[in-house]
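Progress against Task 2.4 (sequence-to-structure conversion) is shown through the following example record, which the project officer requested during the mid-term review.
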Amino acid sequence: MTRKLLLMLLCFAAVLAVATPLLAAHPEAGTEAPAFTLPSQDGQTVNLSDFRGKWVVLYFYPKDFTSGCTQEAHNFQRDLAQYEKLNTVILGVSLDDVNSHKQFCVKQGLSFRLLADTKHEVSEKYGTLSHAFFTHASRNTFLIAPDGRIARVFDDVKPNEHSAQVLAALAGLQKK
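Structure tokens generated for the chain above:
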């Protein structure tokens, strides 16, 4: 291996080490879901406790209007009727503000709630806050049972297949 190539690989490794998100540990399955209150795209305040008795898909995503986030949101919207049949609500969370969420919902035809975590408090509670390249919520999902406990955690999700994975997990958990 030439010195130049070795130096390039070392530099690349250093960049990756710096760019790797330093995430706090997130709550695990079986634990109480951290409570929160956040504004939604329609300006209403949403509390996690509002959904006691229902299943909640609480998904965190990096940014409105980006390709992966748009695909993930479209898939949740596409499958919304199936979630409703399973007594489940979808809540998306990013660091974007209410106005951005409102524009994103209108442009993409989204009818579920997107929550604005502009102070980063909820993303931090759930261990999804990342500082890689820019501060954002990492792509993680928490499936919360009707009793308020976390039933399943999905880390580093792939936007294209995620909704189908969550539906399958939800169906399996509800059979128990």
